[in-house]
Every structure is written in C-alpha cells, then in structure tokens.
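Regression check, zinc ion case 408:
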Amino acid sequence: MDATTKSSIARPNAQFDLVNIAFLLLTPIVAFGGTAWYIFYHGVTRLELLNFSLMYLFTGIGITAGYHRYYTHRSYDCSKPLQLFYLIFGAAAVENSALNWCSDHRYHHRFVDTDEDPYNILRGGLYAHIGWIFYKDTRSVHEKYKNIPDLLKDPLVVWQDKWYLFIVLVVSFALPAYVGLIEGRPVGGLLWGGFLRIVIVHHMTFFINSLAHMWGTKPYSEKDTARDNWMLGPFTFGEGYHNFHHKFQADFRNGVRWYQFDLGKWWLYAMNFLGQVRHLKRTPEALILKAKLEVQMRRIEERLAASGAPERMWELVQGRLEAGRQRFEGAMVQYYCAKLEYKRQKDAWTAEMRRQWAAKLETYQNDLDEARRRWAEMIRAMNRIPHPSAQGLLSLTVVFDVLKTRLW
Ligand SMILES: [Zn+2]
Ligand SMILES: [Zn+2]
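Current build output:
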C-alpha cells in the first residue's frame, strides 16, 4: 500500500459489536465479583496464585514479544517452537488473532493520531483504551489485511486465525480450570487463571494505547502523541517507553537503557541465550542520541523564539547551540565508527595494533563524554530562560551562561 492510500476505518459511525461489548463488560464482573465471592467462601491456594501468575506471564509475553515485537515489527528472527508458543498464548490473551491484531497495530503506527489510526488517541482516552473495540470493523478482510502480506503467507499464523476461538476455549479457559482440578478447585482455577488474568492482561495492553499516548515525556520525537512513561513499564510488560518505540519501531527493545523495566526485552535476552531467537535488531546508539539532540534543540529554539529576545542575541545563542550540537554529533560519530571498526577487525590485528586502537577508542570516548557534559550544561542554562508567559523577556544572565559555555 502506498503512503497516500487510506483505509476506511469508520468505526464511530459503524455498528456496535455486541459480542465484544458483552465480553469486555461482563468479564470484569465475573473476574472481580466472582473471585471475591470465591475467596470469601473458599479462600485462596498457592496453586491458584501460581496459575494466575504463569498464565499472566505467558499470555502477556505472547502479546508483547510475540504479536507486537515479532509479528508486527519483525524486530528479530524466531524459532518455530517459540512462534507456536506465541500464537497459542497470544490467542489465550483474548485480543483477537495475530492477523487481526498486527494489522490494526501496523495501521496505528502508520497513521498515528489520524482517523486511519484504529485507536486514535485524539478521539479521547476512553476511546483509545477500549471504546474502539466496541465498534464493528466495516472493512472487508481483503482491504484490512493488505498491510500484512508477510503474515498471510505464514501457515502457522493462518492456522491460528482459523482456530482462534478453539484455542481461546482450550488454553484460556479449560487449561486453568484443569490446573485447578488438580486440587479439586476447578472454579478457583477458572477464576484466577482464566477470568481475572484475562481482564488484567487486557487492561495492561489497553494502557499502551491510552496512557502511553497521554502521560509522559517525548525525549526522542515530538511528531506524535506517543510518550515515555517509566511508571507504565511494570504494568505493560515493559511497553511503557512508547515514545522510543514509535520513533524506532524495529528495535526489539522499548526500554532501551539497561535499567529501564522492559520484560519483553529481558525475555528476548533469555530466549537469545537459549538459541530460540536470533538477529535482535538494535538502533545504533548514535542515531538514538541524534534524535534526542534534535528534540532538545527544537525545544530550546521554540523557547528562544517565544522569549522576545533581540534578534542579534537570538542569532548568537542559536549559533552557539548549533555549534554545540555539531561538536556533540561529531564526537559521537567518531567514537561509534571507531568502535565498530575495532569490533570488525580486532581478530585480524596484531596485539600491538589492538592496544593502539584500544587507546584511541578511550580518547574518543573521553571526547564524547566531554561533549555530552558541555551540551548538558548548555541545555541546563537554556532551561533557566524564564517562560515567556511568566516574564516575557529573555534573561541576559542566562544568555551569558550559554555563550560562555566552552564547546571545545
Ligand atoms: Zn508497535
Ligand atoms: Zn502507540
């Protein structure tokens, strides 16, 4: 499909999908009301908690690492047994078949914040969270699925689509009830591992479409509503770093820093170690930093422009910022290119050459750290410019701080 072709998602004018509405409204009643009633009369066992936890983990991973990062974004290669695991437990999350889910999600990325985005946040948080599922999709299968030709060719994915309801009944409901039967409590198993788990996984996933487009920061791109929100990480299997994800969709990570909570990323490290996944796609660090710099630069420029500073001063500061950015980017490219070269060639080099290169790399890294430190200093100084609505005038002392920042 070319970029100008638009699909016709006319959900708000379309008919209600009564099956979806009934399922999404009744399951929370059974999940919370039923489980509370069961606990009151029969208590809770360790097996029930384990049943809930494992079903929660497996179905959540099926969606995050499977439906999302593997099938929608193709951010790594995956063994057949793991593909089967994703398809079975992804279906058990009861969020539709992989064909359907991935098609919607590709439209979401491609047309984000427009009418063509199935869960367009500009229609409101509740609509993006759950409301969009209340409407029937009016498109023909042929029209809807034109953005997933790769998945239509995958026999396992097509098989899952055909048997979707059967898998839901067996894995999402019968299996947890059967686990409960081991200790003579099938209803407890069904409530904990079935209903309660389904509702919680549902809303954890839905938060990505609602909250991750409403609350948080935009460090990598300001082009759309996607936001990074560290608080969402633990509740969404690590998909809370949504601004990064929208900017770098092919990256297998959402929380790109090692300390950022991202269960999907950690799962994929483990699967890589076990030989089940290969070729995990990473965005080069230099590109990530470049995106961040551009956002910071644009924000400062907007602030400067709005501050009513005299043109000459405006130009001086802007020139200084541009020079700082170029210096930072230059140091970055120098370091990452040298690092790549070192990695590629080191086995063919003599010990002496390796030692020389290691020393060179260390110098480049120091250069980069210094450029980063000076850039941060300049941004800090710029951020002290009073907001125009509060004061209206650019503070001369702040400009002086920026101009005196030593670039190199
Ligand atoms: Zn995505
Ligand atoms: Zn999104």
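Comparison notes: The beta strands are 77-78, 277-278. Residues 1-10, 389-393 have pLDDT under 50 and may be disordered. No diff flagged against the previous build.
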